[in-house]
Design goal:
Number of helices: 20
Helix content: 25-40%
Radius of gyration: 24 Å
Length: 528
């Protein structure tokens, strides 16, 4: 059985002419000379490298659709009819006290200086992609209102059109980075934080120094990678002049915009866009510890690390290095991941998938703890979109996992909310929305709740932020219901006993008991 169909996908704008397709190659069983399109091989014949990436940059996000042998759907959540744990001190468990709306969904992370969040989720790294830039006020405002952390991703300063460098070659002024930080702070209410992520280019440009000196941020994040790819970040650039500028700033730009033949192809219309790539990072224990020491000297109270779906060796390195360096949060992102722009073949065919990677991470954390080493707070990431998946991740990784990093799952509410505002303004509401009403207060179920809280200020708030907050309220109640079903009224009580494997293979990989074996011994006692 083939786990995916290669050579044609809506993400790359390609398709098979025939209904009969060779499973391994994805090529039509009858490939005809004279075919008018359009599989990936066909389109690559004249568009070349463009077909490596999901289309259309800046207007979409993409997620790989490989159907792995195991994922989180192979786990199911236990439910109980007795007990209630984690109720406030002095409260006696019973039908009138163990109410699911009383479940505490708050969490915190950090080695010593904790960050509290109202929900155990936070955004993926929203960096230099166009989809992140143009929707930032909706994402950041919504995250702040919902009481969760927002991650400002890599390369934001590096691609800033208003970037000014000092004589030393370091960032002197970055209006885009300023906008990102100030937007979040405008709506921040004490829960969550904004943290800025750094890759190789960011480090060389002095981003850490800039955001500390200008904005006094508490947290900075180092990036080893993500689940969507195992190369540096990339974006598309539509103009020759912009591509040349980014190359001068030190980025890898393809095709090379300084070559005469490339410039000629651009002017002829054959080359319509360029790719800006970041460099590969190289990790060593000594280098990592030196960088942590440098960042702490700059004044950062917290340092976090984001790593991707690399081999078990890099996973073990990440966990051990973070333990030794007293890192405040380690985010472990499994394949296939989501993207604003990552190579489509790589997204589908590289890396350890989330359930496997996260199961390994739990195993490694246990081994480290047995050696009397403190395990850093951990976040899992890679394909989550709802509260059931988040519950499973928190339980699978308990007690080490404090939150789940969500990419596209938290971007969608921001984009939908933004679009609803624009549709109302342009009197172009689709029927999928207008069936609920034609004004913001009719459409958003949380609008009057927010009106009471913010008053007239709500009128100027980004509608995407309202959408983000509204999704957060749905997420909270759904998680409360799942937690109440396991009789856990505090997030710290969610654990691996609340899960069961639906297949023997899942049991072998995750260490979670098979459904027919879970609680078997306890059950047998009642039958004696």
């Amino acid at each position: 059985m083939n786990l995916r169909q290669p050579n044609a996908n809506e993400a790359t704008g390609t398709f098979n002419r025939s209904r009969s397709v060779v499973p391994m190659s994805g090529i039509c069983t009858r490939c005809v000379d004279g075919c008018r399109g359009g599989c990936e091989v066909w389109l690559s014949t004249f568009r070349g490298r463009e077909v490596l990436y999901p289309q259309e940059f800046g207007n979409m996000t993409a997620g790989a659709d490989k159907n792995y042998p195991l994922d989180y759907s192979h786990l199911s959540i236990q439910g109980y009819a007795v007990g209630a744990y984690g109720l406030p001190k002095g409260v006696k468990p019973g039908p009138d006290t163990a109410l699911f709306p009383n479940v505490d969904t708050g969490t915190e992370y950090g080695w010593t200086k904790k960050v509290k969040m109202q929900l155990p989720i936070f955004t993926g790294a929203l960096g230099s992609t166009e989809i992140a830039r143009k929707n930032w006020e909706h994402f950041a405002g919504g995250a702040a209102m919902a009481g969760v952390t927002v991650v400002c991703g890599e390369n934001v300063c590096g691609i800033d059109t208003g970037l000014e460098l000092g004589a030393n070659g370091l960032v002197k002024k970055s209006p885009e980075m300023d906008r990102r930080i100030e937007t979040y702070k405008r709506y921040w209410e004490g829960y969550g934080e904004i943290l800025v992520q750094m890759n190789v280019e960011d480090t060389r440009l002095g981003v850490a120094e800039y955001v500390m000196d200008k904005h006094g941020l508490d947290t900075i994040e180092l990036k080893w990678g993500q689940g969507a790819k195992n190369i540096g970040g990339e974006i598309k650039v539509p103009s020759l002049e912009r591509a040349q500028e980014l190359k001068r700033r030190g980025y890898i730009v393809l095709p090379d915009p300084t070559l005469p033949e490339v410039e000629a192809a651009y002017k002829a219309g054959a080359i319509k866009e360029f790719e800006r790539h970041s460099r590969l990072g190289f990790v060593s224990q000594e280098g990592f510890m030196k960088e942590i020491q440098r960042l702490r000297k700059l004044g950062y109270k917290r340092i976090t690390l984001k790593t991707g779906a690399y081999s078990a060796v890099e996973l073990a390195m990440a966990i051990r290095f973070c333990s030794d360096a007293k890192i405040d949060l380690l985010t472990i992102d499994g394949a296939p991941g989501g993207t604003g722009m990552s190579p489509w073949p790589m997204m589908n065919e590289w890396g350890i998938p989330s359930l496997y990677l996260h199961s390994l991470a739990y195993e490694f954390c246990q081994k480290l703890e047995k050696k009397k080493k403190r395990v850093p707070d951990i976040a899992f990431a890679g394909g989550f979109s709802d509260e059931a998946g988040v519950f499973k991740a928190l339980a699978l990784g308990a007690p080490y996992v404090k939150a789940v990093c969500m990419g596209r799952g938290l971007m969608i509410p921001g984009m939908v909310g933004k679009n609803i505002g624009e549709w109302i303004k342009n009197k172009d509401l689709p029927k999928t929305v207008s069936r609920f009403g034609t004004t913001l207060d009719e459409i958003f179920v949380t609008y009057e709740e927010l009106r009471k809280k913010y008053g007239k200020e709500l009128d100027s708030m980004p509608t995407g932020a309202i959408g983000f907050y509204t999704y957060g309220q749905k997420f909270k109640q759904g998680l409360q219901q799942l937690m109440a079903g396991t009789r856990s009224f505090n997030l710290s009580l969610v654990n691996r006993k609340h899960l069961m494997s639906l297949t023997r293979e899942c049991e072998e990989v995750s260490g979670i008991p098979f459904v027919m074996d879970a609680y078997r011994k306890e059950a047998e006692k009642w039958l004696k």
